[in-house]
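Batch manifest, entry 17 of 40.
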Amino acid sequence: MSEGEAHVAQARDPSRKERSMDLLARDVMERNVAVVAAQATLLELEQAFEEAGVSGFPVVDGGRVVGVVSRADVLRQLGGKSGDEPRLSTFYAELPSFGSGLADERFADAAARGGRPVEQLKVADLMTPSTVTVAPDATLLDVALALTEHRIHRVLVTDAGTLVGVVSSLDLVRLVAEEKLAVVTPRPRGVGSHD
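Output type: structure tokens
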């Protein structure tokens, strides 16, 4: 049996299929998600980025998700490089937190270049208000569709507007690697029986 045939045979194991079909966003999401408050200052945000070693945060106001913010988004806007076209925040992309040029620039320096007073700006002023979310009871297919439809690498899991977790594309890949999620390779067109 070739490696490809073994892969298909494993994916067809009924107990494995049953386990993978039952997994929901709540089963695989990261529950300990760092967030920032919408009313936090940009200096507080910059400190949070440095302390957490991440490239972005969900933004909350009164416990409800109101947007997302990434270091690159803030620097782009502070430097006067924001476009008029709507776009998703780079929060959703898998990015290194530091060490890649633009991400190393200090907010105050970028604000000075753009002529904006960083001391008066809040996270709410520069966050991306649109969010991509799924419910805790979303199937992993729903999660995968959200990731691919929006061309992103992480999706927020919310329950009535409250953040309860995050699922990333890496989480799904990990499940496949750990054989907790079956991958069924579609048959090439024209192969197999036709009804």
